[in-house]
Write a structure and sequence with these properties.
Radius of gyration: 18 Å
Number of helices: 3
Helix content: 25-40%
Number of strands: 7
Length: about 140
């Protein structure tokens, strides 16, 4: 991965709940990551997987979790919440096999302006993780 020069960024889409809870529309994760990678200027972003050394596939997901909580009067109730995640799969373009996966929390907040700021910070964190992965050479097994 450290020798890759050209990448194709693929939009893996978003879950319906992710689109509802993260302001900015259904292509927000793709658009923001594309802009961040373009600004970093480490890779040439190409228009087709056939031209790429690596494929980066970004997807916004939410996983439901049920939490049992107790109210002050002692009653129990189940609350379902949907934590949002950004999933980036790094794929080999010739085999489509996964080489590496990065999953981070997707920032959001109680208001749209704060949510946009939190999401942009998440994209920055994801870009930093990509930088760390592609800058560290793979370990060669020692005999």
């Amino acid at each position: 991965m450290t020798s890759a020069k050209k990448i194709f960024l693929s939009n893996g889409g978003e879950d319906a709940q992710f689109v509802h809870d993260i302001p900015g529309g259904p292509n927000l994760a793709y658009d923001e990551l594309y802009a961040s990678l373009k600004q970093w200027d480490h890779f040439q972003l190409v228009t087709s997987p056939a031209q790429a050394d690596l494929i980066f596939e970004i997807r916004g997901t939410e996983r439901s979790a049920i939490v049992e909580s107790a109210s002050p009067d002692g009653r129990h109730s189940d609350v379902t919440y949907f934590p949002a995640f950004l999933n980036l799969s790094i794929l080999d373009p010739s085999t489509q096999s996964s080489l590496y996966v990065i999953t981070i929390w997707a920032g959001r907040d109680t208001t749209i302006p704060k949510g946009k700021i939190a999401f942009t910070k998440s994209i920055g964190t994801l870009t930093d993780r990509i930088k760390a992965v592609v800058s560290v050479p793979a370990q060669t097994p020692q005999p």
